[in-house]
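Tokens for chain A. Residues wanted.
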């Protein structure tokens, strides 16, 4: 009986107009700022240029060193400051236990994903783009280096990674990111507006080729009194590999003997 119902449902689906959309291929126009044939979707003949880029091979672990810049916190203003003060009061009143607005397995998004010190990531260079594979939450971040521009902010669907475009200045990758989902946090309990802009200058440490530096500037005229600057340091494991991160297998809260949630 179950097989009959499944077969009947499939037959009805295939007979409907919706079936014409199954497996259909889109025909996207060139990205903003580019002509047809200029985007990262046309890599052939461009691979040789990658050899001139700096050597960022291996995997990279975030490192914290006393005295590094960015150890403080952004200076919030207006409603964002008021909300953060309320958050801190809630934390203090509940011995550090506060409700979460997202799943335990929801990734931090930008800029937090570039500051996960316990999980490494890797850079993959290809024509017209730099791809960052994160072990944490198995996230993928794309930085377009094919010369495209940002779409208008009001046309961007906000995402966890935002829309990133970059270019090389010598051996430094300069990245500009907008369109970050404003339900995410700058730091714990610190919100931001849709106007958040993140600028990164990523390069090897002149004093140590196995150290990568990410000089970040967070700018949000609606939420911050002034741009917040920080430098994140990464150390290289040349032969390391990312391992699978499957958080959803244990995405649950603990409960006490009465069935009450301990952490939310």
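Reply:
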């Amino acid at each position: 009986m179950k097989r009959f119902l499944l077969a009947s449902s499939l037959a009805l689906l295939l007979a409907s107009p919706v079936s014409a959309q199954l497996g259909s291929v889109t025909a996207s126009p060139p990205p903003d700022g580019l002509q047809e044939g200029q985007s990262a979707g046309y890599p052939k003949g461009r691979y040789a240029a990658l050899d001139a880029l700096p050597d960022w091979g291996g995997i990279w672990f975030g490192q914290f060193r006393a005295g590094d810049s960015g150890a403080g916190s952004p200076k919030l203003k207006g409603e964002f400051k008021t909300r953060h003060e309320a958050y801190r009061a809630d934390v203090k009143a509940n011995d550090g236990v506060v409700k979460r607005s997202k799943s335990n397995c929801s990734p931090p998004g930008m800029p937090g994903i570039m500051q996960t010190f316990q999980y490494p990531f890797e850079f993959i260079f290809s024509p017209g783009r730099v791809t960052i594979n994160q072990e944490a939450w198995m996230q993928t971040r794309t930085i377009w280096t094919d010369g495209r521009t940002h779409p208008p902010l009001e046309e961007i669907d906000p995402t966890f990674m935002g829309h990133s475009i970059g270019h090389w200045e010598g051996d430094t990758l300069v990245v500009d990111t907008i369109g970050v989902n404003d339900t995410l946090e700058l730091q714990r309990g610190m919100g931001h507006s849709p106007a958040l802009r993140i600028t990164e200058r990523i390069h090897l440490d002149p004093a140590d080729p196995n150290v990568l530096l990410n000089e970040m500037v967070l700018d949000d005229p609606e939420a911050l009194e002034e741009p917040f600057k920080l430098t994140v340091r990464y150390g290289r494991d040349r032969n390391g590999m990312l391992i699978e991160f499957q958080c959803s297998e244990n995405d649950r809260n603990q409960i006490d003997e009465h069935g009450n949630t301990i952490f939310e």
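Residues 128 and 145 are 5 Å apart (CA to CA). The two ends are 42 Å apart (CA to CA).
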